[in-house]
Design a protein that fits this description.
- The protein is of the alpha+beta class and 727 residues long.
- The protein has 25 helices and 30 strands.
- Strands 5-12-13-23-18-17-16-14-15 form a nine-stranded mixed beta sheet, sandwiched between helices. It has a five-stranded mixed beta sheet with strand order 27-26-28-29-30, sandwiched between helices. Strands 6-11-10 form a three-stranded antiparallel beta sheet.
- Strand 17 and strand 18 form a beta hairpin.
- Helix 2 packs antiparallel against helix 3, helix 3 crosses helix 8 and helix 18 crosses helix 19.
- The longest helix is centred in the first third of the chain and has 34 residues.
- The chain is globular and about 105 Å long.
- The structure holds adenosine monophosphate.
- Adenosine monophosphate binds next to strand 13, strand 18, strand 23 and helix 21.
């Protein structure tokens, strides 16, 4: 378990009643014990005062000695100095306590807890470093058998909870993506992190991470930090995402930050594109990238998906797949890797109507939300009723709110602890200029609060960008009840003339002409009327062509319109599956003493839904009849679709329970007769006796979630646990 301080950190400005004695310094150095209520800021300035007083008194002692003062006078001054030092260190201790309670402390406990979890995960092959026999590659991991099973359970539930329940259209697109797609999305130009290099060894670091580590370290460990410096460092952390390469470089220099491994000087920060570049086909003429997200595959298919959906909005498309990011210096295990599974939803909606018919289903949910006002006031996340957050406008619209609620239900159903899950709104400086509102589902683990799901209203940006680049209008239509009369600029390309001039490229030129904005079309009309021809950029051809007057007619017409044409907005929940799984591992892990209390046994308290194996079958003793019964039970479990293992090793039953508790198997069937068996629940260690014929259906009932263990306990006789049962 994590220490409680790190589970519910207090905000930096929270006032804490300190019961530690604090001494107020007087001119006579008399010490008055007092109970105070002090904030971090107050304590910092208090400490600064104490330290100045210590300095002044030390100087006074030196002076007395230099002047050859009487011994009693010197002794009195030395005593006063000692008293001042005691006061100063008492304040320093209080400050350290407050910093710890604010979330900065307990680093050692967190590290030890993480080590215990990670050791178990690696030893039981949940995951391991990839290519280990060749010393591995940073940021690449393999899932072993139980890890694969957990991952596939999480993904199966994701499909059930989102794709199935919301009638989403699932797609599966290639990882290799042509450059033009990622140019349109902005990734080629902007998907960068700022990097610095060790000037001597060339080792690369993420510049913002070095600055962040420096600030956090100082804030957590340096109790003598003056109040202004403390405010400054907190401010740097708040604006970290906003700093330009120059500003970041200046800060690294100002704070004297050097390469962490060698203490060598660092280069200036410069942008590094995180995409893995490749070329498609043998010629090397067609550049491409491994996709950094799955979303673009959905956007480029919008037209077909809209048609598939009967030309109706809203609808959502979903995709699960690998994403690749060449992280500069991957760290934190599964949390920052170079290849990971993303599960993304693109929900397309009319920008004029972002209501959601099923919002009522989630409106009453109450959970921790961290809107930007609270963040900027230095406060912590608070429980908020989702319906209220949308009604007050804290969350921009119902559809965004609906997905926040659904993500909350998804994560908590998997086994994520409600108390360590919060929804944090992006600060204005974190959001892209086109985004309307963004919230991250953050889960607290031993590394702190980790963004696991991003939920963003991205407006119409993505579809517009691909419309512009491809020349294919990615739009939707709304039919009017009655046609309305409008003045309309009509662009009518002459397919015949364009066909003669551009042959195979005719279609792309036609589409580009039709996709012109009103201003572009009016410009073209003016040029064609004055010069008879004009140059025209066709993005999909990546070149300009000459358009003649005969090739297109542009004029304004009064027209009856039957429908409105618009670019849909998109609301995007994006799930980092590996991050969710890692946090789940930490939230489910605990240790309990063995019966003899001489060792600690590891347990993963996975809900049956995600448990890698749903039950084990143990013949109590090596015996042909019991082995035969175990085989019969195994057959019925297989027929019921329940993953299980038979453990026929003759080791004690307690040892076998401990072994399966460690991989989170929720139920163990012990065969101690040929007619009935016991079923043991991992968490309570309670056992019930069930007949052989019923055992598979009972296990299925609890693992499918139709009944709880408590329900089952009512229906079957309990089995008293013998001394030998649990080790
Ligand atoms: P983003 O597109 O950057 O918002 O990322 C979407 C989600 O992917 C995040 O919420 C994370 O859960 C996950 N993610 C992003 N980068 C990584 C990474 N390097 N390793 C593992 N998961 C990541």
């Amino acid at each position: 378990m994590l220490p409680s301080a790190s589970r519910s950190p207090l905000p930096s400005k929270t006032l804490i009643t300190l019961l530690l004695p604090i001494f107020r310094h007087s001119s006579t150095a008399a010490a008055l014990p007092m109970e105070v209520t002090a904030s971090e800021e107050t304590l910092r300035s208090n400490l600064a005062e104490k330290q100045a007083a210590v300095e002044a008194q030390a100087e006074a002692v030196r002076k007395l000695k230099a002047e050859g003062a009487e011994k009693p006078e010197i002794n009195a001054a030395v005593d006063a100095l000692r008293a001042l030092k005691v006061e100063s260190s008492a304040v320093a201790r209080c400050l350290q306590t407050v910093i710890s309670n604010n979330g900065g402390g307990g680093a050692g406990d967190r590290e030890a807890f993480r080590q215990a979890v990670v050791n178990t995960l690696e030893r039981r092959l949940f995951y391991v470093a990839s290519f280990k026999i060749y010393r591995g590659v940073a940021g690449l991991y393999d899932y072993g058998p139980p890890g694969c099973a957990v991952k596939s359970n999480v993904l199966a539930f994701w499909r059930q909870h989102f794709v199935l329940e919301e009638n989403m259209l699932e797609v599966d697109c290639p990882c290799v993506t042509p450059e033009i797609v990622l140019k349109a999305s902005g990734h080629v130009e902007k998907f960068t992190d700022l990097m610095v290099k060790d000037e001597k060894t060339g080792t690369c670091y993420r510049a913002d991470h070095l600055l962040k580590d420096y600030c956090k370290d100082k804030l957590e460990k340096d109790v003598s930090l003056p109040a202004e410096k403390n405010t400054e460092l907190k401010h740097v952390l708040a604006v970290l995402d906003d700093l330009s390469a120059e500003e970041l470089g200046a800060k690294l220099k100002e704070y004297g930050i050097v390469a962490p491994d060698t203490k060598n000087l660092l280069s200036d920060p410069y942008p590094f594109n995180l995409m893995f570049r490749t070329s498609i086909g043998p010629s090397g003429l067609s550049p491409g990238y491994l996709r950094p997200e799955t979303a673009q595959g959905i956007f480029v298919n919008f037209k077909d998906l809209y048609y598939y959906n009967g030309n109706r909005l809203p609808f959502a498309a979903a995709q699960i797949g690998q994403a690749f990011r060449n992280e500069i210096s991957p760290r934190q295990g599964l949390l920052r890797v170079r290849e990971f599974t993303l599960a993304e939803i693109e929900h397309f909606v009319d920008p004029k109507d972002k209501s959601h018919p099923k919002f009522v289903d989630v409106a009453d949910l109450e959970f921790l939300m961290f809107p930007r006002e609270l963040q900027m006031a230095g406060e912590s996340a608070k429980p908020v009723v989702l319906g209220e957050a949308v009604r007050k406008g804290t969350v921009n619209n119902e559809t965004l709110g609906y997905f926040i609620g659904r993500v909350y239900l998804f994560l908590t159903h998997l086994g994520i602890d409600k108390e360590r899950l919060r929804f944090r709104q992006h600060l204005p400086n974190e959001m892209a200029h086109y985004a309307v509102d963004c919230w991250d589902a953050e889960i607290e683990c031993s590394y702190g609060w980790i963004e696991c799901v991003g939920i963003a209203d991205r407006s119409a940006y993505d579809l517009r960008a691909h419309t512009e680049k491809s020349g294919v209008p990615l739009v939707a239509h709304e039919r009017y009840p009655e046609p309305i009369e409008v003045e309309k600029l009509l662009i009518t390309p002459s397919k015949k003339e364009l066909g003669i001039a551009f042959k195979a490229n005719q279609k792309m030129v036609t589409e580009a002409l039709e996709a012109m904005t009103e201003a572009e079309a009016l410009d073209m009309k003016a040029s064609l009327e004055s010069k008879g021809e004009t140059e025209f950029q066709v993005c999909s051809l990546e070149k300009s062509v000459i358009i003649k007057k005969s090739m297109v007619s542009i004029h304004i017409e009064k027209k009856k319109e039957h429908q409105r044409t618009f670019t849909p907005s998109v609301i995007e929940p994006s799930f980092g599956i590996g991050r969710i799984i890692y946090c789940l591992f930490e939230h489910c892990f605990y240790t309990r003493p063995s019966k003899s209390e001489d060792e600690h046994l590891n347990v993963f308290r996975f809900p049956p839904l995600v448990a890698p194996i749903k039950c084990t079958v143990f013949p109590l003793v090596k015996n042909e009849k019991f082995d035969e019964t175990a085989k019969i039970i195994s057959k019925s479990l297989t027929a019921a679709g329940i993953s299980h293992i038979i453990d026929v090793t003759g080791t004690s039953i307690g040892k076998r329970y401990a072994r399966t508790d460690e991989i989170g198997v929720p139920f163990a069937i012990t065969v101690d007769s040929t007619r009935s068996v016991t079923i043991r629940d991992r968490d309570s260690k309670d056992q019930i006796r069930v007949s052989i014929d019923e055992v598979a259906s009972v296990v299925k009932e609890v693992t499918d979630g139709q009944s709880t263990w408590a329900d089952i306990m009512w229906r079957f006789p309990t089995h008293s646990v013998s001394q030998a049962d649990e080790d």
